[in-house]
Amino acid sequence: MAPGGPAVALLLMLVASTIARAQERELPVSEVAPGIFVHIGDVALMTRENDGAIANVGFVVGDSSVAVIDTGGSVREGRQLLAAIRSRTGKPIRYVINTHAHPDHSFGNAAFAGDGITLVGHKNLPRAFATRGQFYLDGFRRSMGDELINEVRMTPPGLLVEDRLTIDLGGRTLLLRAWPTAHSDCDLTVFDEPTKTLFAGDLVFLGHIPVVDGSIRGWLRALDEIAAIPALRVVPGHGPVSGWPAAIGDERRYLGTLAADVRALIADGQPIAVAAERAAVSERSRWQLFDDYNARNATAAFSEIEWE
């Protein structure tokens, strides 16, 4: 062996051990209601520095089993969520629920692959993974790097929600509801009946500007129905756990302003490029990441509303 070989080998082992420990450290979670644990993601874009951990993820512990609700923006984050679960309960994980297809909510799924675990999603989720999965992987590889992307698997769910579905965790019932196209074309909410806690996925944003990837008109319609859910608190897709239904006030105002501005610009004969610059600019100071998403939202809204 060349001089220094053992020292180099030892150093490599220590580095590998450090990386492994970092990947297995627990994701910080808070118990927001009895048996309901949530990690609040960063309000940021997905990067290799934050492991893609920008969305809210959580889990619900019943008398006999556990359901995970969204798995995060990387397999590394998923493993850290798994470690957080294992430090709090030895009950088996029976369900992993994706609230929709977007990478910040689903890239951690592979950390929960195993016998006895059923992946659950909206009836449109398999199509979303099939048609957009490679686009997501290629796009986020540039910002997150091979290390975080190579392990990601866009595996279709084994249990689909057509409209409503009830899951029993043992003494605890979760009501899942599939929504028509709104934030995306595969939005799913999860309502924990015992604590009146609503996991809304990205149908609800707080602080982080809402992102339109489905239908702005459908989203505004959905908010009217969602507001009627008898929840006490909401876990949004992004932002703090908040009281319900007051939590949707800011989002409703933003989406309504965006739609109204776009309609006015269309009526005035303005092109889509002008809408991207002007629509909803009155909301800029009220939202984080406004300049990253508002022009895109306006473009999506224009493309939909111009055909009304």
Question: What characteristics describe this protein?
Answer:
308 residues, alpha/beta, Metallo-beta-lactamase, Chain A, seven-stranded mixed sheet, six-stranded mixed sheet, 9 helices
Task: Give a quick account of the main beta sheet: strands, pairing sense, barrel closure.
Answer: 7 strands, mixed
State the end-to-end distance. Answer: 75 Å
Q: What proportion strand?
A: 15-25%
The appropriate CATH architecture is 4-Layer Sandwich
Gyration radius, rounded: 21 Å
- Uncertain runs with pLDDT below 50, 5 residues or more? 6-23
What's the CATH class label?
Alpha Beta
Helix and strand run: HEEEEHEHEHHEEEEEHEEHHH
Domain tally = 1
Strand order of the largest sheet: 1-2-3-4-5-6-7
* Approximate helicity band: 25-40%
Structural class of the secondary elements? alpha/beta
Number of strands: 13
- What is the overall number of helices? 9
Shape: globular
- Average per-residue pLDDT, rounded, comes to 93
Give a short overview:
The chain is of the alpha/beta class and 308 residues long.
List the helices and strands and how they pair.
Blueprint: H1 5-24, E1 30-33, E2 36-39, E3 57-61, E4 66-69, H2 75-86, E5 93-97, H3 103-106, E6 118-122, H4 125-144, H5 146-149, E7 159-161, E8 164-168, E9 173-178, E10 188-192, E11 197-205, H6 216-226, E12 233-238, E13 242-243, H7 249-267, H8 272-278, H9 290-305
Helix pairs in contact: 6-7, 7-8, 7-9, 8-9
